[in-house]
Amino acid sequence: MKNLGIIIARKNSKRLKNKNILEISKIKLIEFTIKAAIKSKKFHQIVVSSDDEKILNLKKKYKLVNFSNRPKFLTKEKVKAIEVVQNIINSKNYENFDNVALMLPTCPFRNFKDIQNAFNIFKKTDTVISACKYNFPPELAFVEKKDKYAGYFLKKSPYLDGNTSSQFFEKCLRPNGGIYISNIKKLKKIKSFFKGKIKLYKMPIQRSIDIDNRIDFELAKLIYNKKLFS
């Protein structure tokens, strides 16, 4: 079985400018993911898709990786990750691959063992998604309605019965961006990692930091400097 690894990194990020090339201890954010993918030895080919010249120039450093200049129509803000993945797996260059794994550079502390462990689970299902526990029970979430009054996110919120103790909550997990693995034929058909038979690879919260803004980035630096990600 041939596995294709994909790392996507768009140039323009709104909340945190140039986040994919920001450095933690002189290591670019995207390099954490590249190194983990290479070290896992799970991929016959690793592709980095980007429109950022600073990222594409990393090809001089990581010669085992295929750095691909992302088509302009896939660089827009509202383009979904799955659209970029589909563009790659539909290319003739990768028509002989069986499985694909998407790894987001914004989850830098997923390591090579996480990738290996996720693939071990993948042997028994169609899709594997890495996930971690929510910091706060989603059952207690509010949403603000059009009239600006607050409503419960879930129709059966424990708040409705006055139950706020943790014993009343389900053990919910969230995807952390570490790795999404799927069979390519299945992915081409249903066009989503979030449909079909899915199993979760559970990761600890300290390796599940998902960098989206400056606070996330500063927290990631603290986790790295204090060696809390192991």
Quick structural overview:
This protein has 230 residues and is an alpha/beta fold. It contains six helices and eleven strands. The chain has helices at residues 29-40, 53-56, 81-89, 112-122, 184-190, 214-225, and strands spanning 3-9, 23-24, 27-28, 45-50, 65-69, 99-103, 127-133, 142-144, 150-152, 173-183, 198-202.
Residue-averaged pLDDT, rounded?
A: 91
Reported for the largest beta sheet, the result is: 7 strands, mixed
The count of helical stretches stands at: 6
Radius of gyration: 19 Å
Q: What series of H and E elements makes up the topology?
A: EEEHEHEHEHEEEEHEH
Poorly predicted residue ranges? none
Question: Could you give the distance between the termini?
Answer: 30 Å
Helix-and-strand structural type: alpha/beta
- What is the overall shape? globular
Strand content: 15-25%
Helix coverage percent: 10-25%
Q: Give the strand line-up of the largest sheet.
A: 5-4-1-6-10-7-11
Number of strands: 11
Salient structural properties:
globular
What does this structure look like?
With 230 residues, the protein is an alpha/beta fold. It is 24% helix and 24% strand. The chain is built from six helices and eleven strands. It has helices at residues 29-40, 53-56, 81-89, 112-122, 184-190, 214-225, and strands at 3-9, 23-24, 27-28, 45-50, 65-69, 99-103, 127-133, 142-144, 150-152, 173-183, 198-202. The protein has a seven-stranded mixed beta sheet with strand order 5-4-1-6-10-7-11, with helices on both faces. Strands 2-3 form a two-stranded antiparallel ribbon. A two-stranded antiparallel ribbon has the order 8-9. β8 (142-144) and β9 (150-152) form a beta hairpin.
